[in-house]
Structure formats: structure tokens, C-alpha cells
Amino acid sequence: MKARYIGWIVGLLIAVALPFVHRDPYHLHIMVLILIWSFAYTSWSIMGRFGLVSLGHGGFMGVGAYVTALLWNHLGITPWIGIPLSMICAGALALVVAYPCFRFRITGHYFVLVTLALSGIVLQVITATRDWTGGSLGYTPNRAPSWFALQFDDKITWYMIALLVWLLGIAIWHWIDRGMGRHAMEAISEDEDAAAAAGVNVTAEKLKITLISALMTALAGALYTQYQMFISPDTVSGIAVSLQMVFAAIVGGLYVALGPTVGAVITIMLAEFLRIFFGTGAVGWDNLIYGLLLVLFIIFLPKGILGSISERFARVVRI
Asked: 150: which DSSP letter?
């Protein structure tokens, strides 16, 4: 146990020192993207690990991204206020969709279809309201580099913000993993009727985990907007983004805290590889590759890369 804590401390110190030792802007840019998307993938894994497979997280991320940008551009509301408001909007959307599902026991593939529809609806709304959102052409927040606007030209500043948010995601994951709610959710995922008979408030527990996940995803979308200073419906919302989250969480390791981070490294590096070597000729290839790899991992490596490594290491230690 002590070795684990020492490993975390050493790793954190290295992560903090990294941008001051290696200042290459491109590499820092990749690291910031990995950290932000790791947080988004972690938010999905919080639900996915308990059998709540959602394809609506692209919707939550889109709400977080666009509400923050629209409030800043049209009303001059600083992202420091806009981000919490966007999270509230995403949380309200999650409750409106999830409560009827959980109340009337809509589970399994039916729940997946409902969340899939949610993701598609948010994408269509963003695209249709092009007079406000720019539609499929994308949207750019008004530029005003400052703390008030949460806009920085310095990559190191953004790296530190992304690192802090990533740590927040890991902390929330561990809080859920070690809390009493975990046992309730595991019981629910096994048998809802048995869990209810044992005194578990099934609807409340599922709503709580869904709300936490939606709030985190909206925060990731808002931060991505502030960092990139450009968003489009396809990059922060829709079914493709939801599938990307599913892929990254499962491939990295759904039941390990750092699994989504490993998944983020794979997805970001794959996207960069295709962009650099194939350019516009590889548009859409990443989603095709995600789908193929997801099928292979579900069949041959269901616990993901990090989960399988941890399992084998535990077996060696026991031997």
C-alpha cells in the first residue's frame, strides 16, 4: 500500500515538473488534450463500470461546450460563471432523461437506445440553431486572453489546469470506488430486484451516479472549448464522441482508475498519427479503427490493457 502511494507521489511530481523541463509547445498541446479527454473518459467510466452503458455523453459534453461559449459571446458572462451554469444545464438534462428510465426500469439495450437518441438530439439542435451556434461550420469564443475569460496563450498554464482537473477526476473515481455507493451500484448491476429488497434505493443511486458523470462530462467539454478556442458539433457532441468515450474507457481498463487515461493516450495519439501521415484523406478513419479495436478488446481483452496487466500482476504476487 505504501509503495502505491509513493508511486503516485513520484508520478505527480514528474507530471508537475514536465512542462518546465520539456517546453516543446506541440508536445505540451498533446499532453493537455490527453489530460482533458482523460477526465471526460473517466466521467463515462464512472457509469460504465456499473453496467450503465450510456451513448449520451456526447450530448452532455456538447452542452458544456456550447453553453459556456454562448454565454461568453452573447452575454459577456465569464466562463468562471458560465462553466458552472453549463454543468447545471447538463445535469438537468441528465435528470430529465435518466429519471423516467430508472423509475420505470428501462435498462440494458433500451437504456442505451434512449441515451443514443439524446446524443443525436443535442447534435441536431446545435447544427439546426446555426444562427447562434454556427452550425456545422463551428463556433469560436470571442478572444480576450485573461484570467477573467479563462483564456491563456501559455501552454504551461493550460497544462497545469488540465493536470488539476485530471487529478479531480481520479479523486472522484476513488471516492466512488471506496464509498458505500459502490456496493449499492454493484448490487444493482447484478440484480435490481434483489438490491431493492435489501433496502437499496435503486432509482436514487442510479440517478446520483448519472448526475456525477454528466457534470464531469460537461466540465470537460467547457474546458476543451476554452483551450481549443474553436468547437464544432462533431468534435464535442454527437454519437461519434460518445463512442470514442466508450472505446477509450474499455480499451484502457474500465475498472482501473488510470484505465481511461491509457485510453486517452491511445485515442489522441491515433488521431495525431492519422492527421500527420494521411491528412484529410483519413477523415473518419479513427472512428472506424475505434469500432474494430473495440470489438477485438471486448472479445479477447474485456478488462482492457491496464486492467489485464493489473490482474496478471496480482496473480504473480499471489504465486
From this structure: T
